[in-house]
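Hey,
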Amino acid sequence: MSELKFPQQTNFYRGKVRDVYTIDDRLLVMIASDRLSAFDVILPKPIPYKGQVLNQIAAFMLNATKDLCKNWLLETPTANSSLGYKCEPFKIEMVVRGHLTGHAWRTYNSGKRKLCGVALPDGMKENDAFATPIITPSTKASEGHDEDISKEEIIAQGLATAGEWLQLERLALGLFKRGQALALKQGLILVDTKYEFGKLNGDIVLMDEIHTPDSSRYFYAEGFEERQQAGEKQKQLSKEFVREWLIENGFMGKEGQQVPEMTDDWIQTISKRYIELYEQVIGAPFKPQEVTAEQQLDKITTALGTY
């Protein structure tokens, strides 16, 4: 979708996945596109309905956690757009991990026993649960790759004060616990996720998306223990399957590597997996909605008039 123009628009930013419009320097309109990013690279072809899936899961989860933590969201004018407050972001991502999976497992498997300053116990297998969830933050890069960072480095670099860090830690772990409970109701395990926080009128608030397939990983709870005991791969809902496909085809976002060809069948498979995740996480059928640029502009402009 091409760039839109809103009344009192003061800025526009095209992220890897979202188009973000600043209105009057105090509100944000975020449009979740169908773009797919992996290893911090935007893949060449869009995934049908991915933006709607992301936007609707995020809105559902933000509403289901607002008693724990204030958030930026005001409303969702269309299926793939959100309108909310502009916050002053902390330039860190709070990555919470309940299991030794993905980047954490790759680090562990290479022989390292420390991730972002957090000690990892010996004798763990891939996908094993940690005794208690751990936080492995990363810096929020405006370009290129996010980098692992420790709590001590965050405070030393002034990315958050010691007091702010304690609040961020408490909020992130509380949100993760709620996310795990919501997932379990649907027969899922929330494996790991990331949260972004900002400040609004002096308060720490939750920004962006939460508990979506782009920011989180889910396993099916049924058969989890049996698969672990047998050393089998876990059945999961996340975009990790896209990363695995890229790795198998020699792409990890490094210089000189070529994104493998995405066939129409493969794009439809990815789309179906996103829809499956929506239905599993929300527990309701997905209703695809097509929105033209004109309808998008009209509905969001009407919503903006309220604020």
